[in-house]
């Protein structure tokens, strides 16, 4: 196959890929390896919003990644072309034939599809792997089935990651992700109360309300700011000692004094220290924060 042909021909897998976790990574690795063998562009067709957000009224599914985070992770694992289709009711009503012909063939020039045995597509999800095989003969593309074992791994991992994060078990979530769970947000101004007790914090605003925020509590975190890595501790919750307020995310970075208001930063969650508590006084809170810092530094030393 010529390099000119490769520029247009794709090997493709399809799915929401929320989390881009270890189960997904196995599939992505297969795509990348096959792309090299067959001189094709490793590609992913994915959807946003999540189909359940569109088709199920009042469905409040929380996602492990924002769409921007999903793109970044897919690229990190070697995917060169990421096609994000806006999922609408109109899109859901596409016939199976139109879906294959218009998107996979005419738009993406797909030469091979790596897909699960249980994949359904087209209006009312009425078409299955057998229909796809018939379309592959008509439109001249190959199919490789993802095994039932690998599909189960994807499903189990996604469920376990969400459950782990909702329960505050960040170490288990990170094990299934194959990387540290992270939050991407903008540093905004807060009440500056942390500064009065020698624990200034960066308040993180996450625009995407569908992003899964882990269980309230105090976490050990790290972030790269201006090309330098900093550790810190993060509180998720309503700060009940000061006064109950809407849930917020605040990070105190160690050995860091720069002004980063307005910056977009990525916070990696490493370990969970404790639940959020209400203290009788600011002095009691300050003393607990000192203990938290000591615990965080012990943890950081153990992993460096």
UniProtKB/TrEMBL annotation:
Domain Riboflavin kinase: start-end pairs: 176-301
A family per Pfam: FAD_syn
EC number: 2.7.1.26, 2.7.7.2
InterPro entries from the UniProt entry: FAD_synthase (IPR015864), Riboflavin_kinase (IPR023468), Riboflavin_kinase_bac (IPR002606), Riboflavin_kinase_bac/euk (IPR015865), Riboflavin_kinase_dom_sf (IPR023465), Rossmann-like_a/b/a_fold (IPR014729)
Keyword tags: ATP-binding, FAD, Flavoprotein, FMN, Kinase, Multifunctional enzyme, Nucleotide-binding, Nucleotidyltransferase, Transferase
Pathway: Cofactor biosynthesis; FAD biosynthesis; FAD from FMN: step 1/1; Cofactor biosynthesis; FMN biosynthesis; FMN from riboflavin (ATP route): step 1/1
Enzyme class, first EC level, given as a word: transferase
Catalysed reactions, semicolon-separated: riboflavin + ATP = FMN + ADP + H(+); FMN + ATP + H(+) = FAD + diphosphate
Highest taxon of source: Bacteria
Nucleotide-binding as UniProt keyword: yes
Role according to the record: Catalyzes the phosphorylation of riboflavin to FMN followed by the adenylation of FMN to FAD.
Protein family according to the UniProt entry: Belongs to the ribF family.
Designated name of the protein: Riboflavin biosynthesis protein
Organism: Winogradskyella haliclonae
Underlying gene: ribF
């Amino acid at each position: 196959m010529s390099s000119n042909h490769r520029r247009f021909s794709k090997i493709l897998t399809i799915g929401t890929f929320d989390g881009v976790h270890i189960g997904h990574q196995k599939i992505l690795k297969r795509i990348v390896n096959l792309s090299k063998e067959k001189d094709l562009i490793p590609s992913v067709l994915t959807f946003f919003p999540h189909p359940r957000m569109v088709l199920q009224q009042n469905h409040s599914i929380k996602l492990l990644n924002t769409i921007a985070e999903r793109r970044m992770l897919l690229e990190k694992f070697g995917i060169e072309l990421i096609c994000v289709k806006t999922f609408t009711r109109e899109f859901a009503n596409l016939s199976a034939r139109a879906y294959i012909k218009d998107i996979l063939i005419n738009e993406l020039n797909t030469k091979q599809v790596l897909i699960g045995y249980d994949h359904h597509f087209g209006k009312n999800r009425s078409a299955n792997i057998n229909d796809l095989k018939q379309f592959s003969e008509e439109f001249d593309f190959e199919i490789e089935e993802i095994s039932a074992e690998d599909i189960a791994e994807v499903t189990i991992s996604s469920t376990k990651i969400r459950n782990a994060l909702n329960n505050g078990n960040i170490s288990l979530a990170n094990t299934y992700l194959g990387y540290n769970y992270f939050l991407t947000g903008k540093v905004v101004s807060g009440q500056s109360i942390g500064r009065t007790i020698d624990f200034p914090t960066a308040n993180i605003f996450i625009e995407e309300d569908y992003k899964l925020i882990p269980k309230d509590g105090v976490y050990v975190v790290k972030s790269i700011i201006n090309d330098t890595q900093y550790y810190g501790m993060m509180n998720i919750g309503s700060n009940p000692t000061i006064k109950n307020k809407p849930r917020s995310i605040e990070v105190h970075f160690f050995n860091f004094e720069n002004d980063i208001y307005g910056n977009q930063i990525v916070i990696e969650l490493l370990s969970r220290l404790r639940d959020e508590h209400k203290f009788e006084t600011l002095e009691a809170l300050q003393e607990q924060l000192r203990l938290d810092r000591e615990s965080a530094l012990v943890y950081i030393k153990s992993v460096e």
